[in-house]
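Morning run. Coffee first, then this:
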Amino acid sequence: MGTNFRPLDRDTLLLLPPSLHDWLPANHLARFISDIVAKLDLRAIRSEYRGSGTAAYQPEMLLALLCYGYATGVFSSRKLERATYESVAFRFLTADQHPEHDTIATFRRRFLAHLTPIFEQVLSIAAESGVLKIGRVSLDGTKMKANASKHHALSYQHAQDLKRQIQAEVQQLLRRAEQADREDDDDGLDLPKELARREDRLRVIDDALKRIKDREQERVDVEQAEYQEKLSTYKVKEKQKKARGKKPVRPSKKINPKAQINLTDEESRIMPVSGGGFIQGYNAQNVVDCESRLLVSTFVSQSANDMSLLPKSIDQLMALPESFGRPTELLADAGYFSERNLTACEKSGITPYISDRRERHGLRLRDMAEPKPLALDAPIKDRARHRLRTRSGRAIYGLRKSTIEPIFGIIKAAMGFRDFLLRGIEKVTGEWKLVSLAYNMRRLQVLQATI
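And here it is:
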């Protein structure tokens, strides 16, 4: 008995023209992103377009294309262009148009600065939908690889050694040229070309040394200012006989011989990563609303140390419209624990739940006991430590691992974003904003499905 197969016919034309809306299920992410982008105010982007003979692609289409690409792990402009031919979802978003990869790359690079107000507009949509009301927030950072190799980094000491070596080679080549002129002997070496190549390398090294010196001077100025602030605080406490610990030590003004610059992306930095090792990268910071799991603050820093970055996160939170809500509690790990950060939280009306140590897995019985009450005038650090030793404090702080940390997992694993495509702190900040925007759109689709 013959098997019954469905007919397969690729040649017969469709009787009616196909509709784009028939290509995707009703609850598809591409549909949702298209609907969200349609609600955004993109007049600032449109105003920067100049009239020309060639019609430009709609900014709504290019923005939706980028957001969906970053939400689904397609980041390269060439892969995005190819996806507009090969993927039904991308063809739906572009209305079966196919922008070239250089058009996509130029749009992304040109309008990065507009992503901050767009990011806030998406949060506004979430707030109006009733799924966002900022209250308890969680802060953390992650090291992201730059579009540069750490093997292309040049230290101050190594640059000086290379400069001396090349200068010696130049002198040797000049002596060789003089000898060849005297003896009228051509040894086959193109001396002008070799000299020009070394002169070019010397110019690159001199430029690198100058930039390292400038960067080191900025570091010295910051450290000296911090030292003066710590010294003033110490002297005040010393007069009040409340000084604790050692007197602040004046930092050195010398250039660190290990100070480096990367010749590919000079604004990136060598950064340690969890588990050991180092990468050439940036420190990406995010704040998530614990209730909705939406990102409400995001930026990128060149500092490997998280401790100095908390005030900027608070400033961004407080700059958001009051209709989004106001942060009441902030959760962060031991990397953010400092008197300055605790004070910044309290001045903004935020109760800090910041650990002073790396938390152990599994508490002992004596650690689970409720601590004794503190004096009303206890130092701010003691109050912060006491808060996290209470049962309620431990329960609140325990939410950190289930709020901010999974988001980095989603960004790196589910969305596949592990390293930046762009270079320079301004551009990678914009790209991280785009990543966070794409995450929020994914999350907002889930939240609105539950309304």
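The first strand starts at residue 134 and ends at 145. Good start to the day.
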